[in-house]
Specification:
Elements: E1 12-13, H1 16-23, E2 32-36, H2 42-49, E3 54-58, H3 62-72, E4 77-79, E5 96-101, H4 107-116, E6 125-133, H5 134-140, H6 151-159, E7 160-168, E8 173-174, E9 181-188, H7 198-209, H8 217-224, H9 228-234, H10 247-261
Parallel strand pairs: 2-3, 2-5, 3-4, 5-6
Antiparallel strand pairs: 1-8, 6-9, 7-9
Helix pairs in contact: 1-2, 4-6, 6-10, 7-10
């Protein structure tokens, strides 16, 4: 029996009904598929049953990587690598469907990295089916004027359409986490606000949400030196709080920020 490593945020999905529900969300026959954090291969088996054209696995744990290679052999292409240091565009020229029971401790970093690395029109993935802690998932799908709204929702909504599929109880995992999980479905947007460098959007949202309960005046003055033209153009009231500005306002603020820096 493989021991889980707390340092890697490992919680293996063991409920067969949930595994089937996840894999049945999309048609992957003759498609290229990437699975992130396959663990002991419970989801991997179900993916292979759907006859994908190719199945790539990224698994950081050396022991699990060896076990997966023994178990699946030439049915998979395995990368024994840390997903945060992995170049997702290095192994295929086709759009890929991604499944991931993401390690809880780095799930937001993984999603943020994938979005920030979308530097042009092309998106390397066709769709993402990812699992997060429910609390994190709620932040990803949050809308403005809600307490969960913040950097994660703003970054995600810039390039991706996202919807919640279902929640998963702790007893569906081994070891059991102390919290519920949620499965989210993402697909790239065709229409989005053009930003030169997504890192600038991350900067804007970080500065504004560093003090989410404070009014907008301080972060706005810090970034834009109180530029009244920008306030008038975007119709921003500095007495509001960061959670009161909608997605598009943050994207337009990022464009104004890039103009100033150029």
């Amino acid at each position: 029996m493989t021991k889980t490593k707390k340092s890697l945020g490992q919680n293996f999905l063991i409920d067969q009904n949930i595994i089937k529900k996840i894999v049945n969300l999309v048609d992957i026959k003759n498609e290229e598929v990437l699975e992130v954090g396959p663990g002991t291969g419970n989801l991997t088996i179900e993916i292979l049953r759907k006859n994908p054209k190719k199945l790539y696995l990224v698994e950081k744990d050396n022991e699990l990587s060896g076990l997966l290679n023994e178990r699946f052999g030439n049915k998979i292409t395995l990368f024994n690598n840390d997903i945060l240091n992995f170049n997702e565009q290095s192994f295929s020229r086709n759009q890929i469907t991604v499944f991931g029971n993401l390690p809880y401790n780095i799930s937001t970093e993984i999603l943020s990295k994938w979005i920030i690395n979308l530097k042009n029109e092309y998106c390397w993935f066709k769709q993402l089916i990812l699992m997060f802690q429910k609390e994190v998932a709620d932040r990803i799908i949050a809308n403005f004027n809600t307490s969960a709204y913040g950097r994660l929702a703003i970054l995600t909504n810039w390039r991706l359409k996202v919807k919640k599929i279902f929640d998963i109880r702790p007893e569906c995992f081994s070891p059991r986490p102390k919290i519920n999980s949620s499965v989210l479905y993402f697909e790239p947007k065709n229409d989005y606000v053009q930003i030169e460098d997504p890192k600038n959007l991350e900067t804007i949202s970080r500065v504004f949400f560093n003090h989410r309960r404070k009014m907008l005046k301080k972060p706005f003055n810090h970034l834009f030196n109180g530029d009244q033209k920008i306030l008038d153009k975007l119709k921003i009231d500095l007495n509001l709080r960061p959670q009161n500005l909608d997605f598009d306002t943050y994207y337009e603020l990022t464009r104004e920020y890039e103009k100033l820096r150029n």
